[in-house]
Amino acid sequence: MQEITTRADLINALRVASELEHGLMAQYLFAVYSMKRYTYEGLDPVQLEFVRRWSSSITLIARQEMEHLGLALNLLSAVGGTPSFTRPNMPQRRDYYGDKAGIKLTLTRGDLTTIKRFQHFESPEKLLPDAEHGVIDQKKAAKWCRDDKDSAGSRAEVTKILGERAAMRSKKLLRGAPALTFGWDSVQELYEKIRRGFEFLDKELGPKNLFVGPPSLQIFGGPKSPQHGSMNDLNQYGLDVIAVTNIATARQAITMILEQGEGIEVKPSYLPWTHFCLFTQIRGEMEQHGLGELAARPVVRNPMTMLYPDICPDDEVTLLKDPTTIRVAQLFNGSYELMLLLLLYLYSDNVKSQDEVNDLMDAAFFPLMTMFVRPLAEVLTEMPAGVTTKEGMTNAGPGFELNGDVLLFPSIKATWDLFQERFDVLVRGFDEVLDNGDPWIKLPGQSEQGFKTSRIWRRMEWMRANMRRLAEDWRDKWANVGRTS
Protein backbone atom coordinates (compact mmCIF):
# COMPACT_ATOMS: atom_id res chain seq x y z
CA MET A 1 0.00 0.00 0.00
CA GLN A 2 1.40 3.37 -1.01
CA GLU A 3 1.86 6.21 1.46
CA ILE A 4 -1.06 8.53 2.15
CA THR A 5 -0.46 12.02 0.75
CA THR A 6 -3.95 13.33 -0.09
CA ARG A 7 -7.20 13.77 1.80
CA ALA A 8 -8.88 11.33 -0.57
CA ASP A 9 -6.26 8.68 0.25
CA LEU A 10 -6.75 9.29 3.98
CA ILE A 11 -10.54 9.03 3.74
CA ASN A 12 -10.27 5.83 1.70
CA ALA A 13 -7.87 4.27 4.22
CA LEU A 14 -10.12 5.23 7.15
CA ARG A 15 -13.12 3.71 5.39
CA VAL A 16 -11.17 0.48 5.01
CA ALA A 17 -10.24 0.66 8.71
CA SER A 18 -13.87 1.24 9.72
CA GLU A 19 -15.08 -1.62 7.56
CA LEU A 20 -12.34 -3.87 8.93
CA GLU A 21 -13.13 -3.07 12.58
CA HIS A 22 -16.82 -3.74 11.92
CA GLY A 23 -16.00 -7.09 10.30
CA LEU A 24 -13.64 -8.13 13.10
CA MET A 25 -16.25 -7.23 15.72
CA ALA A 26 -18.91 -9.37 14.01
CA GLN A 27 -16.56 -12.37 13.81
CA TYR A 28 -15.55 -12.08 17.47
CA LEU A 29 -19.18 -11.79 18.58
CA PHE A 30 -20.19 -14.80 16.49
CA ALA A 31 -17.46 -16.89 18.12
CA VAL A 32 -18.34 -15.86 21.67
CA TYR A 33 -22.09 -16.38 21.17
CA SER A 34 -21.38 -19.93 19.99
CA MET A 35 -19.61 -20.97 23.19
CA LYS A 36 -21.26 -23.41 25.59
CA ARG A 37 -22.93 -22.21 28.79
CA TYR A 38 -24.60 -25.26 30.40
CA THR A 39 -23.49 -28.58 31.87
CA TYR A 40 -25.98 -30.46 29.68
CA GLU A 41 -23.79 -29.46 26.73
CA GLY A 42 -21.15 -31.98 27.77
CA LEU A 43 -18.79 -29.94 29.96
CA ASP A 44 -18.24 -30.23 33.70
CA PRO A 45 -18.32 -27.13 35.96
CA VAL A 46 -14.52 -26.67 35.86
CA GLN A 47 -14.46 -26.81 32.06
CA LEU A 48 -17.42 -24.42 31.86
CA GLU A 49 -15.51 -21.96 34.04
CA PHE A 50 -12.65 -21.97 31.52
CA VAL A 51 -15.13 -21.39 28.70
CA ARG A 52 -16.85 -18.64 30.69
CA ARG A 53 -13.53 -16.82 31.14
CA TRP A 54 -12.69 -17.18 27.46
CA SER A 55 -16.11 -15.82 26.54
CA SER A 56 -15.59 -12.87 28.86
CA SER A 57 -12.21 -12.10 27.27
CA ILE A 58 -13.53 -12.29 23.72
CA THR A 59 -16.51 -10.11 24.68
CA LEU A 60 -14.05 -7.52 26.03
CA ILE A 61 -12.13 -7.65 22.75
CA ALA A 62 -15.34 -7.25 20.72
CA ARG A 63 -16.36 -4.27 22.87
CA GLN A 64 -12.99 -2.67 22.21
CA GLU A 65 -13.37 -3.35 18.49
CA MET A 66 -16.58 -1.34 18.82
CA GLU A 67 -14.48 1.43 20.38
CA HIS A 68 -12.01 1.13 17.50
CA LEU A 69 -14.86 1.44 15.02
CA GLY A 70 -16.04 4.57 16.85
CA LEU A 71 -12.50 6.01 16.84
CA ALA A 72 -12.05 5.26 13.12
CA LEU A 73 -15.41 6.96 12.38
CA ASN A 74 -14.40 10.00 14.44
CA LEU A 75 -11.08 10.17 12.57
CA LEU A 76 -13.05 9.95 9.32
CA SER A 77 -15.55 12.62 10.33
CA ALA A 78 -12.78 14.93 11.53
CA VAL A 79 -11.25 15.24 8.06
CA GLY A 80 -14.56 15.68 6.23
CA GLY A 81 -15.40 12.06 5.44
CA THR A 82 -18.86 10.51 5.74
CA PRO A 83 -19.11 7.84 8.45
CA SER A 84 -20.15 4.45 7.13
CA PHE A 85 -21.31 1.16 8.63
CA THR A 86 -21.28 -0.68 5.31
CA ARG A 87 -19.16 -3.83 5.10
CA PRO A 88 -19.17 -6.96 2.93
CA ASN A 89 -21.23 -9.97 3.90
CA MET A 90 -19.27 -13.00 4.99
CA PRO A 91 -17.50 -15.08 3.89
CA GLN A 92 -14.94 -13.32 1.73
CA ARG A 93 -11.68 -14.51 0.21
CA ARG A 94 -8.59 -14.57 2.40
CA ASP A 95 -6.97 -11.98 0.13
CA TYR A 96 -9.96 -9.59 0.27
CA TYR A 97 -7.81 -7.02 2.10
CA GLY A 98 -4.63 -8.01 0.28
CA ASP A 99 -2.45 -11.09 -0.07
CA LYS A 100 -0.08 -10.12 2.72
CA ALA A 101 -2.70 -9.13 5.28
CA GLY A 102 -4.40 -12.51 4.89
CA ILE A 103 -7.49 -11.54 6.88
CA LYS A 104 -10.15 -14.15 6.21
CA LEU A 105 -13.66 -12.76 6.75
CA THR A 106 -15.76 -15.70 7.88
CA LEU A 107 -18.13 -16.57 10.73
CA THR A 108 -16.94 -19.65 12.59
CA ARG A 109 -17.64 -21.07 16.04
CA GLY A 110 -15.32 -20.40 18.98
CA ASP A 111 -13.03 -23.41 18.62
CA LEU A 112 -9.22 -23.65 18.56
CA THR A 113 -8.97 -23.10 14.79
CA THR A 114 -10.96 -19.88 15.08
CA ILE A 115 -8.87 -18.64 18.02
CA LYS A 116 -5.69 -19.20 15.99
CA ARG A 117 -7.21 -17.13 13.17
CA PHE A 118 -8.09 -14.32 15.60
CA GLN A 119 -4.58 -14.44 17.06
CA HIS A 120 -3.29 -13.89 13.53
CA PHE A 121 -5.62 -10.91 13.04
CA GLU A 122 -4.18 -9.11 16.05
CA SER A 123 -0.52 -10.12 15.68
CA PRO A 124 2.31 -7.56 15.65
CA GLU A 125 4.33 -7.43 12.45
CA LYS A 126 7.28 -9.21 14.09
CA LEU A 127 5.12 -12.24 14.75
CA LEU A 128 3.31 -12.49 11.43
CA PRO A 129 2.60 -16.14 10.55
CA ASP A 130 4.33 -17.99 7.76
CA ALA A 131 2.61 -17.64 4.41
CA GLU A 132 2.09 -21.38 3.98
CA HIS A 133 0.21 -22.19 7.18
CA GLY A 134 -1.06 -18.81 8.39
CA VAL A 135 -0.60 -19.75 12.07
CA ILE A 136 1.34 -17.86 14.73
CA ASP A 137 4.20 -19.65 16.50
CA GLN A 138 2.67 -20.10 19.96
CA LYS A 139 6.01 -20.18 21.80
CA LYS A 140 7.07 -16.87 20.24
CA ALA A 141 3.64 -15.40 20.96
CA ALA A 142 3.76 -16.45 24.62
CA LYS A 143 7.26 -14.99 24.96
CA TRP A 144 6.07 -11.73 23.42
CA CYS A 145 3.22 -11.52 25.92
CA ARG A 146 5.23 -12.36 29.05
CA ASP A 147 6.20 -9.37 31.19
CA ASP A 148 9.87 -10.27 31.59
CA LYS A 149 13.24 -8.99 30.47
CA ASP A 150 13.48 -11.20 27.39
CA SER A 151 10.05 -10.30 26.02
CA ALA A 152 10.56 -6.62 26.80
CA GLY A 153 13.77 -6.81 24.78
CA SER A 154 11.90 -8.43 21.91
CA ARG A 155 9.30 -5.67 21.94
CA ALA A 156 12.05 -3.03 21.95
CA GLU A 157 13.60 -4.76 18.94
CA VAL A 158 10.24 -4.71 17.10
CA THR A 159 9.73 -1.02 17.89
CA LYS A 160 13.22 -0.25 16.55
CA ILE A 161 12.57 -2.20 13.34
CA LEU A 162 9.24 -0.45 12.81
CA GLY A 163 10.89 2.92 13.35
CA GLU A 164 13.51 2.12 10.74
CA ARG A 165 10.79 1.02 8.28
CA ALA A 166 8.85 4.22 8.92
CA ALA A 167 11.97 6.32 8.27
CA MET A 168 12.63 4.50 5.00
CA ARG A 169 9.02 4.93 3.89
CA SER A 170 8.95 8.61 4.82
CA LYS A 171 11.73 9.26 2.30
CA LYS A 172 9.31 8.12 -0.41
CA LEU A 173 6.53 10.32 0.89
CA LEU A 174 7.30 13.31 -1.32
CA ARG A 175 7.46 11.38 -4.58
CA GLY A 176 3.86 12.20 -5.50
CA ALA A 177 0.39 11.11 -4.46
CA PRO A 178 -0.17 7.56 -5.67
CA ALA A 179 -3.61 5.98 -5.46
CA LEU A 180 -4.34 4.01 -2.32
CA THR A 181 -4.51 0.26 -2.82
CA PHE A 182 -4.87 -2.73 -0.53
CA GLY A 183 -1.58 -4.44 0.20
CA TRP A 184 -0.57 -3.71 3.78
CA ASP A 185 0.99 -6.56 5.71
CA SER A 186 -1.13 -6.27 8.87
CA VAL A 187 -3.74 -4.21 10.70
CA GLN A 188 -0.83 -2.59 12.51
CA GLU A 189 0.72 -1.38 9.25
CA LEU A 190 -2.60 0.03 8.03
CA TYR A 191 -2.92 2.23 11.11
CA GLU A 192 0.72 3.26 10.99
CA LYS A 193 0.20 4.48 7.44
CA ILE A 194 -2.94 6.33 8.53
CA ARG A 195 -0.99 8.03 11.32
CA ARG A 196 1.78 9.08 8.96
CA GLY A 197 -0.87 10.33 6.54
CA PHE A 198 -2.37 12.53 9.27
CA GLU A 199 1.06 13.90 10.16
CA PHE A 200 1.95 14.62 6.54
CA LEU A 201 -1.36 16.33 5.71
CA ASP A 202 -1.34 18.30 8.97
CA LYS A 203 1.91 19.90 7.76
CA GLU A 204 0.93 20.02 4.08
CA LEU A 205 -2.57 21.53 4.48
CA GLY A 206 -2.39 23.02 7.94
CA PRO A 207 -4.56 21.96 10.91
CA LYS A 208 -7.48 24.25 10.03
CA ASN A 209 -7.67 22.92 6.49
CA LEU A 210 -7.24 19.27 7.48
CA PHE A 211 -9.64 19.06 10.44
CA VAL A 212 -12.72 20.47 8.72
CA GLY A 213 -15.38 18.19 10.20
CA PRO A 214 -17.50 19.64 13.06
CA PRO A 215 -16.89 17.82 16.38
CA SER A 216 -20.67 17.79 16.86
CA LEU A 217 -20.86 15.05 14.20
CA GLN A 218 -18.74 12.70 16.34
CA ILE A 219 -19.82 10.37 19.16
CA PHE A 220 -17.49 10.43 22.14
CA GLY A 221 -17.35 10.34 25.93
CA GLY A 222 -14.95 10.91 28.80
CA PRO A 223 -13.33 13.92 30.51
CA LYS A 224 -13.55 16.28 27.53
CA SER A 225 -17.12 15.34 26.66
CA PRO A 226 -19.91 17.79 27.57
CA GLN A 227 -21.61 14.78 29.12
CA HIS A 228 -18.72 13.90 31.44
CA GLY A 229 -19.87 12.98 34.93
CA SER A 230 -23.48 12.47 33.90
CA MET A 231 -25.46 9.31 33.26
CA ASN A 232 -25.51 10.26 29.59
CA ASP A 233 -21.74 9.94 29.21
CA LEU A 234 -20.84 7.27 26.66
CA ASN A 235 -18.49 5.77 29.26
CA GLN A 236 -21.50 4.43 31.18
CA TYR A 237 -21.77 1.75 28.50
CA GLY A 238 -18.16 0.67 29.00
CA LEU A 239 -16.98 2.48 25.84
CA ASP A 240 -14.02 4.86 25.80
CA VAL A 241 -14.15 6.91 22.60
CA ILE A 242 -12.43 10.28 22.24
CA ALA A 243 -13.24 13.20 19.94
CA VAL A 244 -10.72 13.93 17.16
CA THR A 245 -10.14 17.64 16.63
CA ASN A 246 -6.42 18.02 15.88
CA ILE A 247 -3.21 16.08 15.18
CA ALA A 248 -2.68 15.33 18.89
CA THR A 249 -6.09 13.67 19.33
CA ALA A 250 -5.72 11.88 15.98
CA ARG A 251 -2.44 10.37 17.21
CA GLN A 252 -4.08 9.50 20.53
CA ALA A 253 -6.96 7.69 18.82
CA ILE A 254 -4.62 5.64 16.61
CA THR A 255 -2.37 4.82 19.57
CA MET A 256 -5.37 3.56 21.55
CA ILE A 257 -6.22 1.18 18.70
CA LEU A 258 -2.64 -0.11 18.38
CA GLU A 259 -2.19 -0.46 22.14
CA GLN A 260 -5.36 -2.49 22.65
CA GLY A 261 -4.81 -4.64 19.57
CA GLU A 262 -1.19 -5.58 18.87
CA GLY A 263 0.37 -4.18 22.07
CA ILE A 264 3.23 -2.50 20.19
CA GLU A 265 3.15 0.80 22.08
CA VAL A 266 1.71 -0.40 25.36
CA LYS A 267 3.24 -0.40 28.84
CA PRO A 268 4.39 -3.88 29.97
CA SER A 269 1.76 -4.01 32.74
CA TYR A 270 -1.06 -3.71 30.17
CA LEU A 271 0.40 -6.19 27.70
CA PRO A 272 -1.57 -9.25 28.96
CA TRP A 273 -4.83 -7.35 28.26
CA THR A 274 -4.06 -6.61 24.62
CA HIS A 275 -6.11 -8.47 22.03
CA PHE A 276 -3.14 -10.43 20.71
CA CYS A 277 -2.09 -11.60 24.18
CA LEU A 278 -5.64 -12.45 25.27
CA PHE A 279 -6.05 -14.67 22.20
CA THR A 280 -2.61 -16.14 22.86
CA GLN A 281 -3.67 -17.02 26.41
CA ILE A 282 -6.98 -18.54 25.26
CA ARG A 283 -5.19 -20.64 22.64
CA GLY A 284 -2.66 -21.86 25.20
CA GLU A 285 -5.35 -22.89 27.68
CA MET A 286 -7.47 -24.57 24.99
CA GLU A 287 -4.48 -26.64 23.91
CA GLN A 288 -3.43 -27.42 27.49
CA HIS A 289 -6.86 -28.61 28.63
CA GLY A 290 -7.96 -30.29 25.42
CA LEU A 291 -10.99 -28.04 24.96
CA GLY A 292 -10.23 -26.76 21.49
CA GLU A 293 -13.12 -28.67 19.90
CA LEU A 294 -15.39 -28.92 22.96
CA ALA A 295 -15.72 -25.27 24.01
CA ALA A 296 -18.25 -24.30 21.31
CA ARG A 297 -21.60 -25.64 20.20
CA PRO A 298 -21.85 -27.42 16.82
CA VAL A 299 -22.62 -24.13 15.08
CA VAL A 300 -22.40 -24.11 11.28
CA ARG A 301 -20.07 -21.68 9.55
CA ASN A 302 -21.56 -18.60 7.90
CA PRO A 303 -25.23 -19.37 8.61
CA MET A 304 -27.34 -17.32 6.20
CA THR A 305 -31.02 -16.99 5.35
CA MET A 306 -30.11 -16.38 1.69
CA LEU A 307 -27.14 -15.95 -0.66
CA TYR A 308 -25.92 -12.40 -1.31
CA PRO A 309 -24.17 -11.16 -4.47
CA ASP A 310 -21.04 -10.02 -2.61
CA ILE A 311 -20.38 -13.37 -0.91
CA CYS A 312 -17.28 -15.22 -2.13
CA PRO A 313 -16.89 -18.14 -2.12
CA ASP A 314 -20.53 -19.06 -1.75
CA ASP A 315 -19.76 -22.74 -1.12
CA GLU A 316 -18.59 -21.67 2.38
CA VAL A 317 -22.12 -20.49 3.22
CA THR A 318 -24.55 -22.67 5.18
CA LEU A 319 -28.11 -21.85 4.16
CA LEU A 320 -30.43 -22.36 7.12
CA LYS A 321 -33.20 -24.92 6.50
CA ASP A 322 -35.27 -24.92 9.70
CA PRO A 323 -38.27 -22.57 9.02
CA THR A 324 -38.58 -21.26 12.60
CA THR A 325 -34.84 -20.68 12.89
CA ILE A 326 -34.89 -18.73 9.62
CA ARG A 327 -37.58 -16.42 11.00
CA VAL A 328 -35.56 -15.83 14.18
CA ALA A 329 -32.44 -15.15 12.08
CA GLN A 330 -34.44 -12.57 10.12
CA LEU A 331 -35.43 -10.94 13.42
CA PHE A 332 -31.74 -10.76 14.32
CA ASN A 333 -30.83 -9.23 10.95
CA GLY A 334 -33.64 -6.67 11.23
CA SER A 335 -32.61 -5.63 14.75
CA TYR A 336 -28.95 -5.44 13.73
CA GLU A 337 -29.64 -3.30 10.66
CA LEU A 338 -31.98 -0.98 12.59
CA MET A 339 -29.26 -0.48 15.20
CA LEU A 340 -26.78 0.47 12.46
CA LEU A 341 -29.26 2.90 10.89
CA LEU A 342 -29.79 4.63 14.23
CA LEU A 343 -26.04 4.85 14.75
CA LEU A 344 -25.60 6.33 11.29
CA TYR A 345 -28.31 8.87 12.07
CA LEU A 346 -26.44 9.81 15.24
CA TYR A 347 -23.32 10.57 13.19
CA SER A 348 -25.27 12.76 10.75
CA ASP A 349 -25.95 16.50 10.98
CA ASN A 350 -29.66 15.83 11.42
CA VAL A 351 -29.19 15.51 15.19
CA LYS A 352 -28.99 19.10 16.38
CA SER A 353 -28.63 19.02 20.16
CA GLN A 354 -27.02 16.97 22.92
CA ASP A 355 -30.48 16.20 24.32
CA GLU A 356 -31.45 14.63 21.00
CA VAL A 357 -28.27 12.54 21.05
CA ASN A 358 -29.06 11.37 24.59
CA ASP A 359 -32.65 10.52 23.67
CA LEU A 360 -31.58 8.50 20.65
CA MET A 361 -28.97 6.58 22.64
CA ASP A 362 -31.38 5.84 25.48
CA ALA A 363 -34.47 5.17 23.35
CA ALA A 364 -33.11 2.80 20.78
CA PHE A 365 -29.41 2.12 20.16
CA PHE A 366 -28.33 0.46 23.38
CA PRO A 367 -31.67 -1.29 23.98
CA LEU A 368 -31.36 -2.74 20.49
CA MET A 369 -27.85 -3.99 21.14
CA THR A 370 -28.29 -5.37 24.64
CA MET A 371 -31.95 -6.47 24.57
CA PHE A 372 -32.22 -7.85 21.03
CA VAL A 373 -29.00 -8.21 19.01
CA ARG A 374 -27.08 -10.07 21.71
CA PRO A 375 -29.87 -12.32 23.08
CA LEU A 376 -31.15 -13.18 19.59
CA ALA A 377 -27.63 -14.15 18.57
CA GLU A 378 -27.25 -16.32 21.67
CA VAL A 379 -30.51 -18.22 21.21
CA LEU A 380 -29.78 -18.75 17.51
CA THR A 381 -26.70 -20.80 18.47
CA GLU A 382 -29.02 -23.14 20.43
CA MET A 383 -31.53 -23.52 17.57
CA PRO A 384 -31.34 -26.20 14.87
CA ALA A 385 -29.89 -25.11 11.56
CA GLY A 386 -31.89 -27.82 9.80
CA VAL A 387 -28.65 -29.10 8.28
CA THR A 388 -27.15 -32.49 9.12
CA THR A 389 -23.44 -33.26 8.72
CA LYS A 390 -21.50 -36.48 9.22
CA GLU A 391 -20.99 -35.38 12.84
CA GLY A 392 -24.78 -35.10 13.34
CA MET A 393 -27.27 -32.27 13.74
CA THR A 394 -25.95 -28.73 13.69
CA ASN A 395 -26.91 -25.42 15.30
CA ALA A 396 -27.54 -22.06 13.68
CA GLY A 397 -26.04 -18.67 14.53
CA PRO A 398 -26.26 -14.96 13.67
CA GLY A 399 -25.31 -14.24 10.06
CA PHE A 400 -24.90 -10.44 10.47
CA GLU A 401 -26.50 -10.19 7.04
CA LEU A 402 -26.69 -6.83 5.25
CA ASN A 403 -28.80 -6.14 2.17
CA GLY A 404 -26.44 -3.74 0.43
CA ASP A 405 -25.06 -0.48 1.80
CA VAL A 406 -26.18 0.85 5.19
CA LEU A 407 -27.66 4.20 4.17
CA LEU A 408 -29.97 6.72 5.78
CA PHE A 409 -33.49 6.93 4.44
CA PRO A 410 -33.64 9.34 1.48
CA SER A 411 -36.45 11.42 2.97
CA ILE A 412 -35.25 13.01 6.21
CA LYS A 413 -38.75 14.33 6.85
CA ALA A 414 -40.14 10.79 6.82
CA THR A 415 -37.18 9.19 8.60
CA TRP A 416 -38.84 8.92 11.98
CA ASP A 417 -41.94 7.30 10.51
CA LEU A 418 -39.73 4.83 8.68
CA PHE A 419 -37.91 3.98 11.91
CA GLN A 420 -41.32 3.35 13.49
CA GLU A 421 -42.19 1.07 10.61
CA ARG A 422 -39.04 -0.96 11.26
CA PHE A 423 -39.97 -1.38 14.94
CA ASP A 424 -43.51 -2.46 14.05
CA VAL A 425 -42.22 -5.04 11.55
CA LEU A 426 -40.02 -6.53 14.26
CA VAL A 427 -42.99 -6.76 16.64
CA ARG A 428 -44.97 -8.65 14.01
CA GLY A 429 -41.99 -10.91 13.42
CA PHE A 430 -41.87 -11.93 17.08
CA ASP A 431 -45.61 -12.60 16.98
CA GLU A 432 -45.25 -14.85 13.93
CA VAL A 433 -42.58 -16.91 15.67
CA LEU A 434 -44.26 -17.23 19.07
CA ASP A 435 -47.97 -17.45 18.23
CA ASN A 436 -47.70 -21.03 16.92
CA GLY A 437 -46.54 -22.89 20.02
CA ASP A 438 -43.12 -23.76 21.45
CA PRO A 439 -40.99 -25.54 18.82
CA TRP A 440 -37.94 -25.83 21.12
CA ILE A 441 -39.32 -27.69 24.14
CA LYS A 442 -37.92 -31.06 23.01
CA LEU A 443 -34.41 -29.79 22.29
CA PRO A 444 -31.68 -30.96 24.71
CA GLY A 445 -31.65 -29.01 27.96
CA GLN A 446 -34.65 -26.86 27.08
CA SER A 447 -37.20 -28.51 29.39
CA GLU A 448 -36.89 -27.45 33.03
CA GLN A 449 -38.87 -28.58 36.06
CA GLY A 450 -41.52 -26.06 37.02
CA PHE A 451 -41.79 -24.53 33.55
CA LYS A 452 -44.15 -25.50 30.75
CA THR A 453 -42.09 -23.75 28.08
CA SER A 454 -38.45 -24.04 26.93
CA ARG A 455 -35.55 -21.81 27.94
CA ILE A 456 -35.49 -20.39 24.41
CA TRP A 457 -39.23 -19.70 24.45
CA ARG A 458 -39.00 -17.72 27.69
CA ARG A 459 -36.13 -15.61 26.35
CA MET A 460 -37.98 -15.00 23.09
CA GLU A 461 -41.14 -14.01 25.01
CA TRP A 462 -39.09 -11.56 27.07
CA MET A 463 -37.69 -10.05 23.86
CA ARG A 464 -41.15 -9.80 22.30
CA ALA A 465 -42.48 -7.89 25.32
CA ASN A 466 -39.52 -5.51 25.20
CA MET A 467 -39.85 -4.94 21.45
CA ARG A 468 -43.54 -4.14 21.86
CA ARG A 469 -42.69 -1.69 24.62
CA LEU A 470 -39.91 -0.08 22.58
CA ALA A 471 -42.18 0.31 19.54
CA GLU A 472 -44.90 1.93 21.64
CA ASP A 473 -42.43 4.20 23.41
CA TRP A 474 -41.11 5.29 20.02
CA ARG A 475 -44.63 6.06 18.83
CA ASP A 476 -45.79 7.84 22.00
CA LYS A 477 -42.71 9.58 23.38
CA TRP A 478 -40.08 10.00 20.71
CA ALA A 479 -42.12 11.24 17.77
CA ASN A 480 -40.21 14.52 17.50
CA VAL A 481 -36.74 13.46 18.67
CA GLY A 482 -34.13 14.32 16.09
CA ARG A 483 -36.53 16.05 13.70
CA THR A 484 -35.22 19.21 12.07
CA SER A 485 -37.37 22.27 11.69
Describe the structure concisely.
With 485 residues, the chain is mostly helical.
Structure description:
- The chain has helices at residues 7-33, 45-78, 112-121, 138-145, 149-170, 187-205, 207-210, 247-261, 275-289, 323-346, 354-380, 415-434, 455-477; strands at residues 303-304, 318-319, 384-389, 392-395.
- With 485 residues, the chain is mostly helical.
- The strands form two sheets. A two-stranded parallel ribbon has the order 1-2. The chain has a two-stranded antiparallel sheet with strand order 3-4.
- Helices cover 51% and strands 3% of the residues.
- The protein has two domains: 1-297, Ferritin (Up-down Bundle); 305-485, Ferritin.
- A hairpin with a 2-residue loop joins β3 and β4 (392-395).
- It is built from 13 helices and four strands.
Radius of gyration of CA atoms, rounded to a whole number: 23 Å
Q: Specify the CATH class of the largest domain.
A: Mainly Alpha
Number of domains: 2
Q: Order of strands across the widest beta sheet?
A: 1-2
**Mean pLDDT score, rounded?**
84
Describe the secondary structure blueprint for this structure.
Blueprint: H1 7-33, H2 45-78, H3 112-121, H4 138-145, H5 149-170, H6 187-205, H7 207-210, H8 247-261, H9 275-289, E1 303-304, E2 318-319, H10 323-346, H11 354-380, E3 384-389, E4 392-395, H12 415-434, H13 455-477
How would you describe this structure in keywords?
mainly alpha, two-stranded parallel sheet, Ferritin, 13 helices, 4 strands, 3% strand, 485 residues, globular
